[in-house]
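Quick one, tokens below:
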């Protein structure tokens, strides 16, 4: 695919060197791309796993009852690891190092986000993607934008930093779909309206952790509608991207249409970012959906959360 049409922006070489040689141009390239919903791909920026840590890269260490191994945002609580206390300590140290390095990377690329990024748990994914058996809604091999059914995020953006740490040379293979506005235009009119009282009831029944806003309703509607439409999955504009071991990639996963096809051994860091911290908010899902829906989608107070 021609680079201008691609939803993936490849930034070869050492990002620190690029940053120090022309910080203004590099920042603006990164902000422009990521806020337009593109995936920033750093093929030469790996996350170093030491030789002794390689012995931790075994699926048996992950509790099959949990989706992933994860470390809480404050670095204190590790979950989903089986194994002896030494293995647990080493897993914790590995994930904690990644937590620090992922934050440093995002803060360096977009310093304007620094004061606003809210760290979420960090995950270590040890299972081969191909072995996952999921319901269609949870099937991440179908193109989707991220939206959480039980955790409404009130317009908060989702930034994710991924690192392929496969020691055997196996890439993580994604499909990356069309820009968010095209997705939204295609599906918005088919999303059933939010029934009056339903957000209140879902919260009351503790199905959601907080009140589902009209924005959350539409985002979840897009997520489900994309995954449910198999002809869309097959025919929409998309590209196959192979993220090599020793590479890192970053995107707003609530905006970039993505699907994972294969791969094993990955670290992932999520941040939330208030919509008010965006530099070009007009490109974001909230602005696009409000324009297409012709109405405000967040209660007034929520949209002003700093
Ligand atoms: C996803 O965020 O949908 C899955 C990403 C991955 O496992 O590579
Ligand atoms: Fe996803």
């Amino acid at each position: 695919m021609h680079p201008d049409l691609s939803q993936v922006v490849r930034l070869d070489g050492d990002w620190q060197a690029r940053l120090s040689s022309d910080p203004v141009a590099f920042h603006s390239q990164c902000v422009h791309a990521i806020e337009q919903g593109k995936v920033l791909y750093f093929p030469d920026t790996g996350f170093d796993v030491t030789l002794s840590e390689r012995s931790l890269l075994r699926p048996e260490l992950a509790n099959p009852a949990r989706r992933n191994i994860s470390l809480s945002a404050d670095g204190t609580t590790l979950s989903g690891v089986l194994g002896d206390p030494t293995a647990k300590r080493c897993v914790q140290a590995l994930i904690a190092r990644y937590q620090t390095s992922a934050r440093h990377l995002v803060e360096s690329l977009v310093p304007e986000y620094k004061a606003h990024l809210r760290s979420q748990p960090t995950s270590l994914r040890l299972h081969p993607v191909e072995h996952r058996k999921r319901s269609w809604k949870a099937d991440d091999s179908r193109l989707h934008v991220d939206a959480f059914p039980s955790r409404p995020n009130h317009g908060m953006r989702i930034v994710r930093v991924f690192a392929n740490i496969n020691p055997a040379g196996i890439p993580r293979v994604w499909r990356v779909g069309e820009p968010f506005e095209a997705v939204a235009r295609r599906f918005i009119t088919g999303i059933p309206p939010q029934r009056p009282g339903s957000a209140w009831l879902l919260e009351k029944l503790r199905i959601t952790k907080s009140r589902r806003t009209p924005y959350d309703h539409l985002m979840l509607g897009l997520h489900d509608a994309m995954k449910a439409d198999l002809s869309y999955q097959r025919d929409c504009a998309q590209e196959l991207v192979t993220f090599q071991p020793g590479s890192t990639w970053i995107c707003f996963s609530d905006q970039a249409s993505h699907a994972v096809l294969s791969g094993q051994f990955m670290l992932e860091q999520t941040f939330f970012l208030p919509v008010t911290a965006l530099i070009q908010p007009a490109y974001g899902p909230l602005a696009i959906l409000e324009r297409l829906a012709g109405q405000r989608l967040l209660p007034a107070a929520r949209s002003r959360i700093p």
